[in-house]
Design goal:
239 residues, mainly alpha, MetI-like fold, 10 helices, 0% strand, globular
């Protein structure tokens, strides 16, 4: 119990003192996770929506593969990216291994199936009802499809939130392809592992608290945007 209390104090002291190392590690964490989330969203949302709206050959197979990869073990994702980026791999010439770019690639591999799969499921849940209503009101097929996506935005936001939660807390994949290099690829989660191995339990808990605060702040912002969107569309005050 004393270690936990000391860790909480350590966390507040780290934040209050604006420790340069912690700031640098925090910025790398945000850069990697948010970049991966953005790229995965740009790919996953349109692909997931297309899979839900169009009956195309291999659609069910692709969806089943996507749902399977939603539970992809982080270490396996890191191993896949490692084998691709190593000097003997197909992209070894770019020398991306043990850089933030490699960590972003690993996290994209983790986030894409979550965003794509959950987007497909939420759009399919809205598909028939919204499509019939839109067509009845005289909408074209494209307008009807856009209406379905708009009505599915809460589920899409939930998909982004779920993916972000996994990325921020991820350690295995980023350590495998990033190497936990100080000043370059060290992030909050790998710092917790390092401090624990060094016997600095209080400092590890303190860094963990910083990680929780960042995660809470990002999720809070997403929820506020979700409530504002709901309020603008319905005129109902959400509390």
């Amino acid at each position: 119990m004393d270690i936990i209390i000391q860790g909480i104090k350590e966390g507040f002291l780290l934040v209050w003192s604006m420790d340069p190392k912690i700031i640098q590690i925090t910025l790398v964490s945000l850069q990697v996770s948010l970049s991966a989330l953005f790229i995965a969203a740009c790919l996953g949302i349109p692909i997931g929506a297309a899979l839900a709206l169009k009956d195309m050959p291999g659609r069910r197979l692709f969806l089943n593969i996507t749902y399977t990869f939603m539970g992809l073990p982080p270490v396996l994702a890191g191993l896949i990216v490692y084998l691709v980026l190593t000097t003997r791999g197909p992209l070894g010439q770019f020398q991306l291994l043990f850089t933030p770019a490699a960590m972003i690639c690993a996290q994209i591999l983790l986030a894409f199936p979550i965003i794509c799969g959950l987007t497909a499921r939420t759009v399919m849940a809205q598909r028939q009802e919204v499509y019939d209503t839109a067509v009845t009101l005289g909408a074209s097929r494209r307008q009807a499809a856009w209406a379905i996506i708009r009505e599915s935005r809460m589920g899409i936001i939930a998909a982004l939130t779920t993916a972000l939660g996994r990325l921020v807390a991820e350690v295995g994949a980023v350590m495998l392809v990033g190497g936990n290099i100080e000043g370059s690829t060290r992030v909050l989660t790998t710092s917790i592992v390092l401090e624990t191995r060094m016997g600095e339990d209080s400092r590890a808990i303190g860094i963990g608290i910083i990680l929780l605060v960042i995660s809470f702040s990002i999720i809070l912002i997403i929820n506020l945007l979700e409530k504002r969107s709901f309020k603008n569309d319905t005129g109902i005050q959400v509390t």
